[in-house]
Design brief:
Tetracycline Repressor, domain 2; mainly alpha; 0% strand; 67% helix; Arc Repressor Mutant, subunit A; single chain; elongated
Length: 227
């Protein structure tokens, strides 16, 4: 089951939902196309399995096989719920509730590292979501219309608030800065792994470099940095 889910994650994440073929997933899992359907009832069930497995919801015991086709909207609801959980305990939410941070350098570093950790952990699923959203309007509306925009706006509010209080550098545009920060994090935590840059940097170097770069760009010189 894990091999089927891994193969499906790779195929959907590479070519998107419409172009993905169950035969391609079967080949990637080193099995026949007929054997694949002993695990999943349909392509929709295979797509659902990607997220059940990816979010760690499959459990120790296998479900009844083949896994049945999900109800309309069930897979997107699963994605929305689990990504919401991943974002619910993030440090930026705590920062936005704090009017006077004890150490803004430590706070900013925590926000960047927190975001990095989430993307590093979930990037194979995020790749599937981004590639497949163009073929699935409900997924497109959730991910690009609400979730991703929400992350950018949240960080922009944080940057504006700390800049107004004199804790961070005032940039030309907070929204553009938030996008720059999170896209930098996404490249190091995710996109470098998809191509020829995968092994240019080890994971710890990538994490430390992007964190240090963002902090150096946004922290004012007179703001003490945590050691």
């Amino acid at each position: 089951m894990e091999a089927v889910a891994a193969a499906a994650t790779t195929v959907f994440g590479r070519v998107g939902y419409r172009r993905a073929r169950t035969a391609d997933v079967a080949a990637a899992a080193n099995m026949s196309a007929g054997s694949l359907f002993t695990y999943v009832e349909s392509k929709d069930a295979l797509f659902h399995l990607v997220f059940v497995q990816g979010f760690g919801l499959l459990g120790e015991s296998l479900p009844s096989l083949p896994i049945s086709t999900p109800a309309p909207g069930e897979t997107v609801a699963l994605i929305e719920r689990e990504l919401g959980k991943a974002a619910s305990a993030t440090k930026i939410r705590a920062a936005l509730k704090t009017a006077h941070p004890v150490d803004v350098a430590d706070e900013l570093r925590g926000i960047i590292e927190d975001r990095y950790t989430v993307i590093e952990r979930l990037w194979p699923l995020l790749a599937v979501i981004e590639r497949c959203a163009v073929d699935l309007p409900e997924l497109e509306a959730f991910y690009f219309g609400r979730a991703r925009v929400g992350h950018y706006r949240q960080l922009a509010r944080y940057l504006e608030r700390r800049a107004a209080d004199g804790h961070l550098r005032t940039m030309t545009d907070a929204a553009a800065t938030a996008r720059l920060v999170y896209e930098s994090v996404a490249w190091f935590a995710w996109h470098r792994r998809e191509g020829r840059d995968a092994h240019d940097f080890d994971d710890e170097t990538a994490r430390r470099t992007v964190t240090e770069f963002v902090c150096a760009a946004l922290l004012l010189e007179n703001v003490p940095r945590a050691r």
